[in-house]
Amino acid sequence: MIQLKGIAWDHPRGYEPLIAASKEFSKSNPNVDIKWDIRSLKEFGDMPIEDLIGSYDFITIDHPYMGQADANNLLLNLRKQIPSDVLKMHSEHSVGPSFESYNLNNKLYALPVDAAALIAAYRKDLIADFGLSDLPKTRAGLFDYYKHLPSDVSVAWALCPTDFWCAFLTICAQEGGRDFVKDFTVDNEIGTAALDEIKRHLEFIHPESMNWNPIQILDKMGEGNEIVYSPYLFGYTNYSREGYAKNLVHFTNSPVNPKHKISTILGGVGLAVSSQCKEAKLAADFVNFVAHPEIQEGIYTENGGQPGNLSAWTSKRNNDMCTKFFIDTLKTMEDAYVRPQHPMWNSFQEQGADLLHEGVLKNTESERLMKQLNELYKTVVCNG
To answer: Among residues 210, 198, 283, 201, which one has the least CA distance to residue 5?
Structure first.
């Protein structure tokens, strides 16, 4: 018996589809047993890969880690293990830039098994009752939308440090295009304007927004009637499935800036293989298996997964099961912004998120915050 071990993240969307896929893989590979551990969502975004590759064969990973993985030889290059025609198929079936986000220097370090970006969540039943069904299409339209809300309901943003960072980058990308980060510098003017805009929103949105992550907001929407809309959070199909929560949550595309064909920041999950894995070919076969359109559209989605494969997103069956979650947010996925991939980006974004979050809580002047942010950026890169 060959034992392989993987680490997923602590949400049913993160581990249940991988467990189901592992069982299915073992049917045709009865000598293989795959076990899964879990880590918190914050650890998924922040924990260095170096802490994992010695203990796990499979690692679920966020795409900005590619620079770190490439520089330090942490993950298996799947181009050497999976035939090029198969990889071409995966590329053609990618949801938006998901597949390409795991490529760096002509090496492929993961396959997208989960696709996500910041999208909008709403309580369709409540906003219909209030006559607010015309959801904002642009960021400017958000401010008008706030004015029409009844006093006993709220709009919420996910703005805990990690998610504040995602909202900040989203606004920057929508305003400045995909290259607002250059030469280890975030454009000062664009960043300052983005921070000022977020501060303006804080005057209208739920006062707990600065403390909440997407799951906390979606739990509130699923169980109570206080929050009717959230314009920027990472979506979870679980809440759009009948019976998962008391109330059904619907999802749609986030507000944008019509000047640029850019939606929101890309998230999602890649399934990677540790460079220290002793069963490299077998492990790569499993990654290929999980990412295959048939598995993604079927077993993976059926078991609470949010697939990374386009055929799964356009499947009528899956959209019926998830109240059109996939087709209603596909435009956001197609136009998503991909974060930088250089080796020190993850260290910078973890520290930068805390810096901005704390600064806004203290109402620090935005221009001063941007100066501190770019000084931090240079320090992190130089020390790295």
So the answer is: 283
- Report pLDDT digits (tens) over 52-94: 999 999 999 999 999 999 999 999 999 999 999 999 999 999 9
Cα torsion through 290, 234, 6, 76, rounded to 10: 70
Using an 8 Å Cβ cutoff, are 98 and 46 in contact? no
Task: With 0.90 as the threshold, say if the pTM is over it.
Answer: yes
CA angle 169, 170, 171 (to 5 degrees): 95
Largest CA distance in the chain: 63
Indicate if 111 and 125 belong to the same structural domain: no
Radius of gyration of the chain (CA): 20
**CATH at 179:** 3.40.190.10
Give, as one character, the DSSP assignment of residue 300: I
Looking at the structure of the chain, the number of domains it has is 2
Q: Which two tokens stand for residue 339?
A: 């974060």
